[in-house]
From TrEMBL, chain B:
Membrane topology, as annotated: Multi-pass membrane protein
The protein's name: ABC transporter permease
Phylogenetic placement of the source organism: Bacteria, Bacillati, Bacillota, Bacilli, Lactobacillales
Organism the protein comes from: Companilactobacillus keshanensis
One Pfam family here: ABC2_membrane_3
Subcellular location: Membrane
ABC transmembrane type-2 domain segment(s): 21-249
Amino acid sequence: MMQQNISITRITVKEILKLTQSYYQNPLTYEKIIELADLNDLEDSKMDKLSGGQKRRLSFALAIASNPDLLFLDEPTAGMDSQSRTKFWQTITDLKKQHKTVFVTSHYLEELETIADKIMILQNKSISFDGSIAQLRALEGESMIEFDSKLLPDLFKDMPEIIDFKKVGDHYKFTTKNAELIIGQLTPYLNAINNLKVQQNSLDSLFVNFNKEGATHE
Amino acid sequence: MNSFIYQININFKRIILRNKRFFLFDMMLPIIFYLLYSKVLVNGIPQADLKTWQMNYLISMIIYSCLLGSIITVANTLLEDKTSHFDILSRLTPLPRWQYYLSRILIFMLLNLISAIVICLVGILVNHLTLQIANWSLIILISVLGTTPLIFMGILISLANNPATVNLLNNIVVFPLAIISGLWWPITMMPKWLQSIGKLTPTFEISNIDQSILHGKIINSHYILGIILWLMIIVVITLLITKYQKHKELIIE
């Protein structure tokens, strides 16, 4: 699946799919392709009249037409609405279950977080990280704990493992590498704590941090 | 084989059936020219010569229409396939390249065939031209086969990869070629030096072969050889440029 959309004039969705099938020895069945790419209502639409998201789905359909075991997707969800996106990643999960290898390039990191078994970060022409998301977290892993409380800051200030401590009014904000430990220590005070929120670093922030470090290392 | 037929079928719909530009341009222009010069503006021609002129000019217009189809439609279609990423899509599949081009070339020949037949019908219906079916078929067939060098010329132009350049090249090639090879006006109206260039063009060669069939003369083998030579030269240049472009792409990467 290419990053650019394919938009051929004077040809319908159905025709281009059947045409692409005709290029392969053992393609997926037409019905299966339509189902996987969620193109049911668009079969007779002209290819160049599709919207951006629909074109993405069609590009995906063209990519899976050959029933490949290894699938490369370059920015697959750019331009898709959120519903299509959810459906799309569901389809990818199903493909994964069929032991297909899927290689995704994407700028939407929060999508990759749930789907990817392995993450690679490409930086300045070389791969600067290669591992699982858990490994990336361990490398950069900071979590944020936030809550409102009338308790005095002295109670929390000296807890171990707190990297950054902030208090604005009654709002506390800690950064830590070991969220579980901190929560354990907070437990006795839970009655006096409101709006507790623990947030693991998202892939987005990991990525930003990683890039920053990468830049300073050079 | 089935899949090849399907590819041809889709290309037929895409390039001919749903392509209004083709109907307007490749066929209407020669038909209008034909009606104008063989029916409307014929005051000065004696009645005896009129039929011959109407027939000769019909052949010129068949070839003119094949010229328009082969160069303008071919170059634009192939260019469009590139800009719409159709070209790269089929490159990523196991489809052999020759099959990609063959399914298109056959369609382009069919396109020329349709225009040639329609223009003959105009001649028959409007000017009541009479010829034996065998002669009509032979003239049409020769015109379509003889214009294959022009299809490759269209392929060659499409390699410019840029709509502005392709359009410019189309105009530079098509109209001067039509004029100097005597398709618009008889070649004898041209100055001597221009005639000698015009007689080397593939369009003049085909029209000459067609005229020989029409008047029951022996076909000049020089012209057949000339068309084959043109075909070979253009195919070789096309292959060389394709190779060079591939080479350049690899270097950039």
